[in-house]
Amino acid sequence: MGDKPIWEQIGSSFVQHYYQLFDTDRTQLGAIYIDASCLTWEGQQFQGKAAIVEKLSSLPFQKIQHSITAQDHQPTPDSCILSMVVGQLKADDDQILGFHQTFLLKSLQGAWVCTNEVFRLALHNV
């Protein structure tokens, strides 16, 4: 009973893979999206694999490192997996910032892909 449910195993593996690619070579992230995928990045909408990879590849930093604080995964009624990630990131020599990211994963032809993704920095107007 100590084993994690399959959706947590898949979600955790996806999260580890995603941030490893993001931190080392963002151009390789195209493999996890499909043409119908949607990304909302800080309120900006992008649809399709090419548009998403273009956005992620053009982010204005040379190096980045993510540190995951927590992640939660849930199965959906239509056999997808909803994953929520909270963590911190450090881009170039900027200060460390908190972030929240949500993924909706779907199994297509034996592989898990990201159909929907939402990213926000944890910034507050004080």
UniProtKB/TrEMBL annotation:
PROSITE patterns: NTF2_DOMAIN. GO terms for biological process: mRNA transport; protein import into nucleus. Pfam families: NTF2. The lineage of its organism: Eukaryota, Metazoa, Chordata, Craniata, Vertebrata. The keyword Protein transport applies. This is Nuclear transport factor 2. It comes from the Eukaryota. It is found in: Cytoplasm; Nucleus. Has a role in nuclear-cytoplasmic transport of proteins and mRNAs. GO terms for cellular component: cytoplasm; nucleus. Keywords: Cytoplasm, Nucleus, Protein transport, Transport.
